[in-house]
Specification:
Elements lengths: L1 H51 L4 H12 L7 E6 L4 E6 L3 H16 L7 E4 L4 E4 L8 E7 L13 H25 L10 H18 L3 E9 L1 H8 L1 H17 L6 E6 L2 E7 L3 H16 L12 E8 L6 H17 L5 E2 L1
Parallel strand pairs: 9-10
Antiparallel strand pairs: 1-2, 1-5, 3-4, 4-5, 6-8, 6-9, 7-8
Helix pairs in contact: 1-4, 6-7
Length: 340
Amino acid sequence: MGIIVNLESRSTIDRTPILISSTPSNLVLELDHYRRKNEELARIYELHRKLGEQLDLASMIDTFSSWLVAFFEHDLLAYRHQPRNRMHMTCSDHGPHRQRLVDCAQKLLEASPAPPAEGFMEEVGLFYHFPLLASDVDRILLLHQKPFLSSDPFYKWEEDVFMELRGPLERALAYEDLYDLARRDALTGLVNRRVFEERLGQEMTNAERYGHPLVLAGLDLDHFKSVNDLMGHAEGDQALVLVSKTLSSMIRDSDLLARIGGDEFALILPNTDIKSAEMLMNRLCDGVASLKIQAPGAKPLGVSIGVSAWQAGFTKCSWVEQVDQALYRAKASGRSRVSF
């Protein structure tokens, strides 16, 4: 019996190390798994904290790119929301190469049909990658020097990260929508007086610093009161909308057209000399006249325009006053014309 006990004991002892050695090994793996998960959660919490401090889309994308570079190096990160026509890019490069990256990124984001999720851009010598977002209306783009491989530590984690980004992005877009509404005229969609005054100050500073030509114009509709009085305010509002669309279609994206109030508008033309401004103003007069808006028994709707080129030493008030005087001369000279 004693031998049998010893054999059984030895057998038990022989098996025990196998059980003991396997159990700690599994435990170590599980602990390591939970440690990594906790680290990932801590990083995502830190990301949410940083994003929570931002309001607008540009700041949010910049913050996200700074956080992401510690886990995945990239030269450019871009975001585009197609329905709202919003796009922002953050790039670590400078100079002409930066512009090439931006141009390539914009081409990828606006491509139709959409390019493959991953690829190589020969123009800039970089790989690109579209992370998965929980939406088909917006897209994230990364440009980076190394291919995005399944062996990368960030590969399995990226889906969770970009899914977490959805909420903050929606918040930023909603904030910008509200901000934009507060800065636009509700009827015409043009920017309001506040935005006009802000932009005018900025353009005057740029003109003084870099010597760029700058032109300011004041526009006032002719015979608009007849439209309101004889055709009703609804027709008057429709006339303002048509005029706004017509004027907007004839200027550059870099120009600023604002509705100052009633039937008064203001136009800022950066990098524009007085000769080019004169040609544009005459086209604007013709554009409004071509709408053929006319109240019964009244003269047709037109626009009078006063124009002044910026000169060193102008203050905002003195320059606007010059434009107002030119506009008054255009009205006094028969209306539907340009005065400088």
